[in-house]
């Protein structure tokens, strides 16, 4: 036999022996002996060139499958963790948008928000909540992010556009053995998640400013480290107090002179058809998140060391049955007093109001017609004693929307909205139309 042929035969022999040798350590020799004894009278099994290849392929596939199962089991949620989510698509076009923001455009624009909600319980009575969110609505010259005039209710205000990030994170737990006291603590929370009771039943169709009976003097919020406690009685009375601090995650520290913080306390009474509450908000070191619902004269001219106290009255009423032409009514009224302003013309006091009307189940089950309007925080007093310094502008905002379900998971909301005199230097009107589609899963 020639040398070349000898090398070829040797290579084939080695390739056949190698997979057998690699599996020798895993062989069941007792099983092999049993097989040998029981197969003496049977015809010997014939092997061919595909026998070992098929065996190796099958074992490799089984190994991969087991590895994938192990990875899934290792990364799976605990049995007490649930996940849900939503996606929002929105499109809008706003006439005279550049009269409110000189860099804004009247062009047709779109945006999205994608949200994942995770809830985990460790005792059955507590809850760890995490919200992951991504979106692209935060554009300084866009049609979804202009406070106060056209900030969409689902705009994601995260620092990185199109980046999924932890947007909310807090822990909620019972205090002691009582079911009436609930505690909150977390690195990413807003004051209104810790309030004693829901304060409005109006559903904004476009304006985020119209949430909670308006995100005005007391209810304008910002995500930061927070903690609070809530008490709910069986007879409808409830109370809460909570604080959110931006300085807690920096060298400024919690509740120091350098800390920008907000401390809210609420007393509420709620029954099936109505609600009434009063909230006092103490705001430190230029906390101006009320800019969601304020003229530029109020939100844009606040000194760095300014503190504020805000009072918020909220109420709502709804009829016993839906489907009639009698709407539910939500009302909000805020008074904001600023302290430490330097300059005679600076704002010292501002007021706002909001009215929201809602009709349920008018054309089909689960539909909703909403009409909201109001005056954002408007200057009613300055440091030198002048009042109604921008009353001649008579600022106003409004929206009209219709919400209906395409199916159990998809809701569409066409809306029209507008306003005037939101910025102190212009009396131009603006008008917009929007279509929002929400997917829940």
What does this structure look like?
- The protein has five helices and 18 strands.
- It has 441 residues and is mainly beta.
- Strands 1-2-3-6-7-8-9-10-11-12-13-14-15-16-17-18 form a 16-stranded antiparallel β-barrel. A two-stranded antiparallel ribbon has the order 4-5.
- It is globular and about 55 Å long.
Defining key terms:
single chain, 441 residues, mainly beta, 3 domains, two-stranded antiparallel sheet
**Overall tally of domains:** 3
Provide mean pLDDT, rounded: 84
Strand-residue proportion: 35-45%
Strand order of the largest sheet: 1-2-3-6-7-8-9-10-11-12-13-14-15-16-17-18
The low-pLDDT segments are 1-56, 70-74
What is the CATH level 1 assignment of the largest domain? Mainly Beta
CATH architecture of the largest domain: Beta Barrel
Broad structural category: mainly beta
Structure at a glance:
With 441 residues, the chain is mainly beta.
Write the topology of this structure:
Layout: H1 3-22, H2 29-38, H3 51-75, E1 81-95, H4 97-100, E2 109-120, E3 127-135, E4 145-146, E5 150-151, E6 165-174, E7 181-189, E8 224-232, E9 237-245, E10 261-270, E11 274-284, H5 296-299, E12 307-317, E13 328-339, E14 347-360, E15 368-382, E16 396-405, E17 410-420, E18 429-440
């Amino acid at each position: 036999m020639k040398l070349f042929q000898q090398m070829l035969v040797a290579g084939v022999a080695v390739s056949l022996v190698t997979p057998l040798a690699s599996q020798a350590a895993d062989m069941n020799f007792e099983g092999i002996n049993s097989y040998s004894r029981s197969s003496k009278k049977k015809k010997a099994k014939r092997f061919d060139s595909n026998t070992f290849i098929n065996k190796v392929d099958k074992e490799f596939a089984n190994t991969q499958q087991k590895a994938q199962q192990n990875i899934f089991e290792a990364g799976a949620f605990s049995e007490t963790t649930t996940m849900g989510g939503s996606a929002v698509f929105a499109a809008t076009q706003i006439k005279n948008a550049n009269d409110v923001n000189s860099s804004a455009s009247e062009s047709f624009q779109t945006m999205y928000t994608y949200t994942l909600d995770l809830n985990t319980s460790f005792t059955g009575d507590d809850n760890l909540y995490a919200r992951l969110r991504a979106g692209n609505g935060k554009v300084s010259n866009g049609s979804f992010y202009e406070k106060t005039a056209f900030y969409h209710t689902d705009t994601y205000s995260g620092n990185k556009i199109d980046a999924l990030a932890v947007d909310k994170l807090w822990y909620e737990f019972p205090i002691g053995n009582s079911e009436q006291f609930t505690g909150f603590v977390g690195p990413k929370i807003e004051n209104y998640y810790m309030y004693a009771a829901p304060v409005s039943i109006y559903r904004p169709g476009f304006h985020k400013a119209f949430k909670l009976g308006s995100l005005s003097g007391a209810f304008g919020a910002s995500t930061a480290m927070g903690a609070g406690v809530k008490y709910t009685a069986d007879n409808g009375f409830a109370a809460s107090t909570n604080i959110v601090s931006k300085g807690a995650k920096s060298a400024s520290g919690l509740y120091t002179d350098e800390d920008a913080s907000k401390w809210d306390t609420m007393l509420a009474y709620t029954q099936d058809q109505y609600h009434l509450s009063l909230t006092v908000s103490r705001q430190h070191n230029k906390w101006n998140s009320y800019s969601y619902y304020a003229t530029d004269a109020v939100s844009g001219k606040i000194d760095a060391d300014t503190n504020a106290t805000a009072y918020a009255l909220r109420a709502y009423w709804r009829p016993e049955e839906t489907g009639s032409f009698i709407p539910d009514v939500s009302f909000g009224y805020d008074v904001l007093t600023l302290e430490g302003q330097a300059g005679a013309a600076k704002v010292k006091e501002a007021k706002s109001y909001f009215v929201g009307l809602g009709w349920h189940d008018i054309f089909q089950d689960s539909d909703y017609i909403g009409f909201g309007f109001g005056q954002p925080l408007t200057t009613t007093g300055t440091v030198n004693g002048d009042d109604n310094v921008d009353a001649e502008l008579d600022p106003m905002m409004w929206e009209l929307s219709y919400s209906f379900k395409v199916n159990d998971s998809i809701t569409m909301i066409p809306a029209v909205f507008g306003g005037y005199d939101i910025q102190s230097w212009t009396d131009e009107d603006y008008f917009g139309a929007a279509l929002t589609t929400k997917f829940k899963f």
